[in-house]
Design brief:
The protein has nine helices and 19 strands. By secondary structure, it is α+β, with helices and mostly antiparallel strands. The strands form six sheets. A five-stranded antiparallel sheet has the order 6-7-12-10-11, with no helix packed on it. A four-stranded mixed sheet has the order 1-2-5-3.
């Protein structure tokens, strides 16, 4: 087990912030994790687990151990005429996993193409895009209890998936190390092209016959147009969650803002577009000294040259305050702040 001291985290967070940690350890096997959690070093220091670092904002150095999950491997465990069951290691790159499934004609996650991060982060965040959430295809999450060292399995229900959340982001945060995720995917695609601009993009691309690759390519094209590439401009994708409000609150907002985008939900609530709310407050495209709000998507905060993320956090506070003042809605950050 190799331990780096006073290590930079710049390469391990998509904001590209140069926070440092006291110790940096990469985990390639469950045996090395077991060795770590039994060590005196682990017991005497706080820890933080990172996958792709695509959902974190560092406002200061981390005075403890940062554990990088680099477990790898994808295995087909069983199948029938309708479905296939896949076990994917938590350290696998999410987008590469999606492409692997598309190549094998396994359907269900093509709408989740180009989402940054790892397979292990997918259930934590219950990642979602274009009408699909990863909870729809997860059967179980396999994880090591960091207190006992025991391997545990969590069924879909036990994960308590919600909008951009799960038990691993709430009551079990930093208590488990996800080792792999089991998915049930379909051999017979049911294409979901009604959400967002997918159908329009497919038409622009001249697609006559739907396929998993065509849907994936359309999603990739849309995301590339709207969202900055973290390798070019530091960002963590959507910084805020889309808020949901009651029918009564929505009726009030609709009266004052007739053009407000809205998406009715099964629980009789209404989801609103956080990016639109932020844009109406004048933030879209605003730039400051080394950071700002993306010019094409107000939901994305960007880092041009900062080494420390505190100004980005302060900007998010101002955005939350302005949306609250204008609409009476309190935005919630999607990104974890450290």
């Amino acid at each position: 087990m190799h331990i780096e001291t006073n290590a930079s985290l710049k390469a391990y967070n998509t904001f590209g912030l140069n926070a440092k940690c006291k110790y940096l350890i990469k985990i390639h096997s469950t045996d090395s994790l077991q060795e770590l959690i039994q060590s005196k070093l682990y017991k005497e220091n706080p820890h933080l687990i990172l996958g792709g670092g695509s959902n974190v904002l560092f406002t200061k150095d981390f005075n403890g151990i940062v554990i990088i999950n680099e477990l790898s491997g994808i295995e087909k465990t069983s199948e029938n005429d309708e479905t296939v069951n896949i076990n994917a290691a938590a350290g696998e790159n999410w987008h590469q996993f999606v492409l692997h499934c598309i190549e094998n004609n396994w359907a269900g996650i093509e709408n989740l193409s180009l989402i940054p991060g790892t397979v292990g982060a997918a259930p934590m965040q219950n990642i979602g895009a274009y009408g699909v959430e990863v909870k729809d295809v997860i059967t179980k999450v396999n994880a090591i209890n960091l207190e006992t060292g025991e391997m545990e399995q969590f069924s879909n229900d036990e994960c308590r998936f919600g909008y951009r959340t799960s038990i691993f982001k709430t009551s079990h945060k930093n208590k488990y190390f996800i080792t792999s995720v089991d998915f049930t995917l379909s051999k017979k695609p049911h294409f979901n092209t009604s959400y967002g601009a997918i159908r329009q993009k497919l038409d622009e691309m001249g697609v006559k016959e739907l396929s998993l690759k065509a849907v994936s390519d359309a999603v990739i094209a849309i995301r590339t147009e709207k969202l900055p590439n973290p390798e070019e401009i530091g960002n963590a994708g959507s910084f805020f969650k889309n808020p949901t409000v009651s029918q009564e609150t929505f009726a009030r907002l609709k009266k004052n803002f007739p053009d407000i985008p809205n998406y009715p939900q099964p629980d009789n609530k209404v989801k609103l577009a956080a990016g639109w709310l932020i844009e109406q407050c004048g933030w879209k495209g605003k730039t400051f000294d080394g950071y700002g709000v993306h010019k094409n998507q107000a939901l994305v905060l960007v880092n041009y040259s900062l080494e420390n993320g505190q100004p980005i956090y302060d900007l998010s506070e101002k955005i939350i305050e302005s949306v609250q003042n204008k609409f009476g809605i309190t935005l919630e950050r999607e990104v974890n702040v450290y």
